[in-house]
Write a structure and sequence with these properties.
The protein starts with 65 loop residues before the first strand and ends in a 12-residue tail after the last strand. The protein contains one helix and 47 strands. Strand 12 and strand 13 form a beta hairpin. Strands 4, 6, 7, 8, 12, 13 and 17 form a seven-stranded antiparallel sheet that branches. By secondary structure, it is mainly beta.
Length: 710
């Protein structure tokens, strides 16, 4: 493999995680400071290995946490012999065994990493089967050289066999520590090495890794490797699978994929006490929201065992109630497109992302007498265009599918019934299903109840997600929860035209205004919204003859880590906000006092590297001003003293940005003459600043305090 020399030196974002504070001269277990979503990192106690060339401590690693591969004797490249990898919460550890040819000594090493464990992304190089490597480390190594590599990220066409690597980790960051080469009794040589886990961008719990050893930039060993293969009568390299790391097979480490099915038992007799006796984890429940458009369905519960799906319903039983027909919709196959949209079934208006494959429909009341009857429904299969909103239901079972109880009146006046559906009687029902019910008025005169549902907006029905049941998992929560809104897809054009902010729905908008009486008064309002790529920020501020804001500081708590008391665990503990915890800080000028003109906000980005929650200046530069992580328009005037500046933050440009973040903005006077604006902030007390909480944004939810209106 050729060495490709990159002449461009990029002080990119990931180097923040590799500052001198990340040196691993003293290898002890510590917190994760970077490297993507770490919520699923190993939970067992980490084995810390000494990089001393004494390999006995590898025997301390639980067998289920150690990945290893031996290179066969008939491999095309004879140099590689064995590779082992152990990944803990702090370090990724490698053991490499090889046979060195004195004529071609090892002098460099490549480490390839499929960091997302996704073989549909990354390079398509044929060195390993289904390669998919997103990252590569490259650097010199020999018996006396410390491996201090450059890190590259693959930027080419997915799965193309092309050399398209751009640097993201600069050489000399001290992210690795390795032993000298040790000669073994079998004549091979070996060395061991650690890589700081947080230095590997976006590394997931499960990943794949491989190693190439080089001499004068020619490959002399590939690990893992397979036996040589013959092509056109000539032996060539036989590609093997990359080493798979992070998958556990037993021991004390729990397997997250282990099945935990329910074995709920319900007697269909109209006595509902056995529902209340179930373990909370065996019950799946939704309740009508207080302002739902369709109100006559009050509660739906589900539980299951290996044979039956049990359902329980509570409906309005008042004299004014009109419910008389019950429709049960089932997404039986749980098939989705890569973007998460349902791939099969009906696309009806009742639920978001509907996808129902079967409809079970029957009467609950005699339309003439209005007296309850035993629910004995017919089942239909959807035969229309996938996700179309058309009536294309074919009858498959006319009666006898559902075993139902009598309808009983509860002490609160509601009417309730329970039923059992034989799971095997629903064709093609998989292990993941979704459910919803529609209640229709007696005489087929319209809808009156729906579950799940959300509160109405402008007196219009708002579709919720269907209730999800997995027959291999019990319910993860002890209490029922309402369906969560989908992540925002807000779009803002950063051009100084503020009209698109008015088009953002309230549920997608996070807004904080200055409290009257606040100590710092220049910052008047901050808005934020987001989509999968960007966070958009709007700042309205005042400028007067006495106070001209000239510097803008953006603080970001990127990981939102808290202890059991809600106190922030990481980041800066500055006085600006209560429970601060800012991990990153962007600072740039927005006004040039010499030219007397507004500037775009193109800040430098810093990472906090000091003691957690200390009030000390310990900020390490991550990306220079103008890096493109934050793009801005110049401020525009709202009136004779109020200006607005808008900017966009590239989410992938902030290392270790999680699914929940907190934001705060500080304005400083032109010429660095002191602070003049702060958001969020409370009203001052006794003439002193009162810190508020930072603005909280969850990328998986909308604004929980906003009504779903524009």
């Amino acid at each position: 493999m050729k060495k490709h020399i990159f002449k461009t030196s990029l002080a990119l974002l990931m180097s923040a995680m590799l500052s001198t504070s990340c040196s691993i001269d003293d290898p002890v277990a510590g917190p994760i400071v970077g490297g993507g979503d770490n919520s699923d990192l190993p939970q067992e106690e980490e084995v810390i290995l000494d990089m001393d060339g004494k390999f006995e401590d590898w025997n301390l690693i639980p067998e289920h946490s150690l990945a290893s591969a031996d290179v066969p004797e008939d491999a095309f490249l004879k140099g590689g012999k064995k590779i082992k990898c152990y990944a803990g919460a702090t370090f990724v550890n490698l053991y490499v065994e090889f046979r060195e040819d004195p004529q071609h000594p090892v002098d460099a090493m490549h480490i390839f990493i499929d960091s997302d464990d996704d073989q549909t992304t990354g390079t398509g190089s044929t060195l390993w089967v289904d390669n998919g490597s997103d990252l590569m480390f490259e650097g010199a190594i020999d018996n006396a050289t410390t491996y201090d590599p450059t890190g590259f990220i693959y930027t080419g066409k997915p799965l193309a066999d092309e050399w398209s690597w751009n640097p993201v980790v600069e050489q000399g960051m001290g992210i690795c520590k390795n032993s000298q080469f040790v000669e073994l009794s079998n004549g091979n040589k070996a060395f061991e090495m650690t890589i700081l886990r947080s230095a590997i961008p976006s590394l997931k719990k499960t990943f794949r890794i491989s190693v190439g050893l080089l001499s004068e930039w020619n490959d002399i060993a590939l690990l893992p490797a397979a036996s040589a293969v013959i092509e056109a009568g000539t032996p060539v390299h036989g590609a093997a699978e990359m080493l798979s790391v992070g998958h556990t097979d037993g021991g004390d480490q729990p397997d997250p994929d282990q099945k935990d099915p329910s074995n709920a038992q319900i007697s269909i007799d109209g006595n509902f006490g056995d529902w209340d006796a179930l373990d909370a984890r065996d019950i799946f429940e939704v309740n009508v929201t207080s302002n739902a458009f369709f109100k006559e369905a009050h509660k739906m519960r589900g539980c299951y065992n290996a044979d039956f799906l049990y359902l329980y319903f509570e409906l309005d039983g008042s004299a004014e109630a009109t419910n008389g027909i019950l429709d049960i919709y089932i997404d039986a196959d749980g098939k989705f497109n890569p973007d998460g949209s349902a791939a099969t079934g009906h696309g009806g208006w009742m639920w978001k992302n509907n996808g129902s494959d079967y409809l079970i429909q029957g009467v609950l009341c005699d339309p003439e007498t209005k007296e309850p009857v035993i629910y004995n429904p017919e089942m239909f299969r959807y035969t229309g265009t996938p996700m179309a909103e058309e009536w294309a239901w074919e009858s498959v079972v006319q009666s006898g599918l559902v075993n139902s109880s009598e309808i009983k009146t509860l002490p609160n006046g509601d009417r309730a019934l329970e039923c059992a559906i034989l799971r095997s009687a629903v064709p093609n029902m998989g292990d993941d299903i979704r459910l919803g019910i529609l209640v229709e008025k007696m005489g087929w005169t319209g809808e009156c109840g729906l579950l799940p549902t959300l509160d109405a907006v402008d007196n219009q029905h708002v579709p919720a997600e269907l209730m999800h049941i997995n027959f291999n998992r019990r319910n993860d929560v002890d209490t029922p929860v309402e369906p969560e809104p989908t992540p925002s897809e807000a779009q803002i054009t950063i051009d100084g035209d503020l009209s698109d902010w008015d088009k953002i729905e309230a549920k997608d908008l996070f807004d904080v205004k200055l409290e009257e009486g606040a100590y710092f008064t220049a910052a008047r309002e901050m808005k934020a919204c987001y989509n999968q790529d960007f966070i958009y920020v709007y700042l309205a501020y005042e400028t007067t003859a006495d106070v001209i804001p000239g510097i803008l500081d953006l603080y970001i708590d990127s990981d939102t880590k808290f202890d059991e008391n809600g106190a922030a665990l990481t980041g800066h503990g500055g006085w600006l906000w209560s429970n601060n915890g800012s991990d990153y800080f962007a600072q740039g000028m927005i006004y040039d006092p010499d030219a007397r003109e507004d500037l775009k906000f193109n800040p430098e980005l810093f990472m906090y590297t000091g003691a957690p929650m200390a009030q000390e200046w310990a900020w390490t530069s991550v990306a220079p001003a103008g890096s493109g992580i934050i793009t801005s328009a110049k401020a525009v005037a709202l009136d004779d003293k109020t200006k607005v500046i808008e900017f966009a933050i590239l989410r992938s440009g902030i290392p270790n940005l999680g699914n929940e973040i907190r934001l705060g903005l500080l304005l400083e006077k032109s010429g660095w003459a002191g602070e003049c604006g702060l958001l969020p902030a409370h009203a001052a007390v006794d003439g002193a600043h009162v810190p508020a909480d930072m603005l909280h944004i969850n990328f998986r939810k909308g604004n929980p305090s906003a009504k779903n209106t524009r």
